[in-house]
């Protein structure tokens, strides 16, 4: 059986409520938080995957990185940069047999996220996190 190596690079961060008009230099910290670890971990594992001739790298993006989301400029821009980095890395590494992809989970309406979510986001169907005590009847 062949050994498989995969990388999942996802960095958490606070969901900033800054609009593009109010985007400050501090917003670049979020870009560093979401982009840096994905790049560094990819750079660290590529030599091993290249030697094997195959592999898969999976980054954790987010829906605001794929779809414009008002009121979340810093978070959305940082995740969009990660999505683009993933695409570029896939183009560069695919000829070596290394696939690079990203998953983009939807924002969840949780107590921790709620202060950062705009009224628009809350009104348009963010999935609610299920209570640990709730049970499914389906």
How many domains? Answer: 1
Shape: elongated
What's the architecture in CATH terms?
3-Layer(aba) Sandwich
Question: Which CATH C-level class is it?
Answer: Alpha Beta
Q: Give the spatial strand order of the biggest sheet.
A: 1-2-3
CATH superfamily: NAD(P)-binding Rossmann-like Domain
Q: Which consecutive residue ranges, at least 5 long each, have pLDDT under 50? A: 131-138
Q: What is the number of helical segments per DSSP (H or I, 4+ residues)?
A: 3
State the secondary-structure class. Answer: alpha/beta
On the 0 to 100 scale, the average pLDDT is 77
Distance between the termini: 38 Å
* Biggest beta sheet attributes: 3 strands, parallel
N to C succession of SSEs: EHEHEH
DSSP summary, beta strand count? 3
Helicity, as a percent range:
25-40%
Task: Describe this protein's structure.
This protein is an alpha/beta fold and 138 residues long. It is 38% helix and 12% strand. It is built from 3 helices and 3 strands, in the order βαβαβα. The chain has helices at residues 27-52, 73-93, 119-123, and strands spanning 6-9, 55-60, 98-103. It has a 3-stranded parallel β-sheet. Helix 2 (73-93) links the parallel strand 2 and strand 3 (98-103). The chain starts with 5 loop residues before the first strand and ends in a 15-residue tail after the last helix. Mean pLDDT is 77; it is low at 131-138.
């Amino acid at each position: 059986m062949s050994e498989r190596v995969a990388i999942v690079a996802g960095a958490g961060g606070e969901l900033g409520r800054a609009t593009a008009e109010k985007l400050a230099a501090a917003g670049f910290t979020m870009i560093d938080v979401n982009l840096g670890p994905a790049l560094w971990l990819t750079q660290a594992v590529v030599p091993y995957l290249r030697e094997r001739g195959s592999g898969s790298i999976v980054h954790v993006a987010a829906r605001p990185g794929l779809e414009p989301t008002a009121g979340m400029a810093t978070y959305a821009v940082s995740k969009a940069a990660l999505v683009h980095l993933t695409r570029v890395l896939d183009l560069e590494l695919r000829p070596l047999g290394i696939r690079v992809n990203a998953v983009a989970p939807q924002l969840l309406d949780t107590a921790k996220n709620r202060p950062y979510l705009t009224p628009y986001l809350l009104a348009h169907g963010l999935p609610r996190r299920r209570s640990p005590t709730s049970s499914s009847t389906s």
